[in-house]
Amino acid sequence: MSQADPSGLGRARAVGFVLPGLVLIGVFLVFPALWTIYLGLTDYRLTGLAAADPQVVGVDNYTTALGDERFRNSLWLTLQYVLGSAVIGQAVLGFAIAWVLRNRPGPVKRITEGLVLLAWILPSSVVAFLWIALLDRDDGTLNTLLHTPGFAWLLDYPMLSIIVFNVWRGTAFSMMLYGAALENVPPSHLETARLAGASTLQQLRDVVFPRIKGHVLTNLLLISLWTFNDFTSFQLTAGGPEGRSEILPVYIYNVALSGGQLGFGAAISFLVLLINLVFAFVYLRLLRDRRKVVVP
Amino acid sequence: MISLSGLTKEFPGGVRAVDSLDLEIGDGEFFALLGPSGCGKTTLLRSIAGLETPTSGKIRISGNDVTALPPGRRNVAMVFQDYALFPHMDVTSNIAYPLRIKKVSRSRREARAAETASRLSLSELLARRPGQLSGGQQQRVALARAIASHPQVFLFDEPLSNLDARLRLEARTFLKRLQRELAVTTVFVTHDQGEALALADRIAVMNAGRIMQVGTPSEVFHRPIGTFVAGFIGSTPMNLLPASAEGGRLHVAGAVLPLPGDIADGPLVYGLRPEYADLSQSAPTGRRDVFSGKVAVVENLGAAHLVTLDSGDLLIQVVVPEGDEPAVGAPAWAVPRTGRALLYRDDRLLTVA
């Protein structure tokens, strides 16, 4: 059997197996993506004249977006959201939980992991409802606990609320990933550092992070992409009040579907796609540089 | 000097890895903890390092009670079985790592690393990463890291077991000479009795969390205090045969031997190393102090053969010089050398026969 054909199917049958998948990807991924690029160049609207007969307007949508205060504000909020809830919140908290739990005996570890995991696997509409009940102005659990009746968390601190919410919601993934990564750190390496007198921070710096660098990068790539495109916060604040928690996915929804400007929304979706690609590119580049160093 | 008193380590679930153990290890001594796996020797070593917290008991190093001190403040260095070299650091940084933690300046710690490396013939390899080193080189780097911090005590966990057989002998000689030169108190753990005999000044033979015997290699080899130590020490296992003393005679496996002095009648265990018997292929005339049997197995040991005799329902092993090995199935007689057999009663050494 030749190297080029390890499965021994032959070219025709191999294509036959792959084709259904390719067709599905084409119909549901590639075509909509291309269609979005096309829509972004038109003044297509949900209703009215432009809905019946959209006109190609070139890069008008893009120049409008880049000049739009609301878009730039939304981009800035999204960066806060990604940095605050994903990079700082989920990654740091997830690592901390994994580190603290790594040597714990069975029940403590299982119960904590179970609770954290529960926040991750519940449907987002259920979770959003729970948080609205928690943060509600009049009868909210938090106000009852803190004895601050009438405090409107979602109105006064909308960004903080959705950041904390997303940390709570998404930490499980980082915790599990780092938990698995920490099992790759040989105990004898940590013990060597302890015998040398290294503090916990020095152990993390000298032994743990050099070992799990790849896991850290993969984790940051995934959670920042997910958070960048996360729409769950819409169910808490709908972007409000006055756009103060209007991150990009919410902005696109508000503009394209509520506002009816489908062409403009498509253009912004394409910008979001480009930003995501930049993220992915940077992370993958870092990962590749690292591999080059490790393999001499 | 290391002194342990009443040291006990009980793991959750009630396993007593170390059971109220007392031990003194002298300054500059090369000390072996020897025993089968699960006997508690590694737990004991890790307790001295501070990596395990004893359930009760005291550990003193040079007179100071270190029982409650964290590992980093005990001034001990440990070499792990897997060497535990940091893969992202080159050899210099690995050797200098403990000094870096102790905030020694870069120039001084690099000088110390280079000096230690040259002593262990690692000078050529200073810029390499552990992944680019052979097993023997990795072990020397791990040793260099332990030496460079000038600890009071070295702890080695199975220091030779990750090397292949030929390298192991070389490393053994090297390790012994190094320890002599440095004259630092060294405790090492091994399950290989040959390694313990070859390296150590004194050996503690352990079983089930307790020390069975402490002594020089010669003492534990020639005067094993009980049948466990007798069976554990020696490259070929000792023959331990049921015997009985009757009317001033010793009856063992069909042979009748003279009984030394003041031993009361009753059951005994007769211990004889296969090296301390001679094999005769013709019946010794008129002698009753020999074991007769049929050759069951002949194992080649290189310069000698290990012959297993089938003597009734007992097996007796004898080491035979090369060229003298009998044919399988032939009758043969094992003649014990006088003054070499050990007599045990209630698992305690009585005397030498």
Automatic annotation (TrEMBL), chain A:
<feature type="domain" description="ABC transmembrane type-1">
    <location>
        <begin position="71"/>
        <end position="283"/>
    </location>
</feature>
<dbReference type="GO" id="GO:0005886">
    <property type="term" value="C:plasma membrane"/>
</dbReference>
<protein>
    <submittedName>
        <fullName>Amino acid ABC transporter permease</fullName>
    </submittedName>
</protein>
<feature type="transmembrane region" description="Helical">
    <location>
        <begin position="212"/>
        <end position="228"/>
    </location>
</feature>
<keyword id="KW-1133">Transmembrane helix</keyword>
<comment type="similarity">
    <text>Belongs to the binding-protein-dependent transport system permease family.</text>
</comment>
<dbReference type="InterPro" id="IPR000515">
    <property type="entry name" value="MetI-like"/>
</dbReference>
<feature type="transmembrane region" description="Helical">
    <location>
        <begin position="146"/>
        <end position="168"/>
    </location>
</feature>
<keyword id="KW-1003">Cell membrane</keyword>
<dbReference type="Pfam" id="PF00528">
    <property type="entry name" value="BPD_transp_1"/>
</dbReference>
<dbReference type="InterPro" id="IPR035906">
    <property type="entry name" value="MetI-like_sf"/>
</dbReference>
<feature type="transmembrane region" description="Helical">
    <location>
        <begin position="262"/>
        <end position="284"/>
    </location>
</feature>
<feature type="transmembrane region" description="Helical">
    <location>
        <begin position="114"/>
        <end position="134"/>
    </location>
</feature>
<feature type="transmembrane region" description="Helical">
    <location>
        <begin position="12"/>
        <end position="38"/>
    </location>
</feature>
<dbReference type="InterPro" id="IPR035277">
    <property type="entry name" value="MalF_N"/>
</dbReference>
<keyword id="KW-0813">Transport</keyword>
<keyword id="KW-0812">Transmembrane</keyword>
<feature type="transmembrane region" description="Helical">
    <location>
        <begin position="81"/>
        <end position="102"/>
    </location>
</feature>
<keyword id="KW-0472">Membrane</keyword>
<dbReference type="GO" id="GO:0055085">
    <property type="term" value="P:transmembrane transport"/>
</dbReference>
TrEMBL record, chain B:
<dbReference type="GO" id="GO:0016887">
    <property type="term" value="F:ATP hydrolysis activity"/>
</dbReference>
<feature type="domain" description="ABC transporter">
    <location>
        <begin position="2"/>
        <end position="233"/>
    </location>
</feature>
<keyword id="KW-0813">Transport</keyword>
<dbReference type="GO" id="GO:0055052">
    <property type="term" value="C:ATP-binding cassette (ABC) transporter complex, substrate-binding subunit-containing"/>
</dbReference>
<dbReference type="GO" id="GO:0140359">
    <property type="term" value="F:ABC-type transporter activity"/>
</dbReference>
<protein>
    <submittedName>
        <fullName>Sugar ABC transporter ATP-binding protein</fullName>
    </submittedName>
</protein>
<dbReference type="InterPro" id="IPR008995">
    <property type="entry name" value="Mo/tungstate-bd_C_term_dom"/>
</dbReference>
<keyword id="KW-0067">ATP-binding</keyword>
<dbReference type="InterPro" id="IPR047641">
    <property type="entry name" value="ABC_transpr_MalK/UgpC-like"/>
</dbReference>
<dbReference type="InterPro" id="IPR003439">
    <property type="entry name" value="ABC_transporter-like_ATP-bd"/>
</dbReference>
<dbReference type="InterPro" id="IPR027417">
    <property type="entry name" value="P-loop_NTPase"/>
</dbReference>
<dbReference type="InterPro" id="IPR017871">
    <property type="entry name" value="ABC_transporter-like_CS"/>
</dbReference>
<dbReference type="GO" id="GO:0005524">
    <property type="term" value="F:ATP binding"/>
</dbReference>
<keyword id="KW-0547">Nucleotide-binding</keyword>
<keyword id="KW-1278">Translocase</keyword>
<keyword id="KW-0472">Membrane</keyword>
<dbReference type="InterPro" id="IPR012340">
    <property type="entry name" value="NA-bd_OB-fold"/>
</dbReference>
<dbReference type="Pfam" id="PF00005">
    <property type="entry name" value="ABC_tran"/>
</dbReference>
<dbReference type="Pfam" id="PF08402">
    <property type="entry name" value="TOBE_2"/>
</dbReference>
<dbReference type="InterPro" id="IPR003593">
    <property type="entry name" value="AAA+_ATPase"/>
</dbReference>
<keyword id="KW-1003">Cell membrane</keyword>
<dbReference type="InterPro" id="IPR013611">
    <property type="entry name" value="Transp-assoc_OB_typ2"/>
</dbReference>
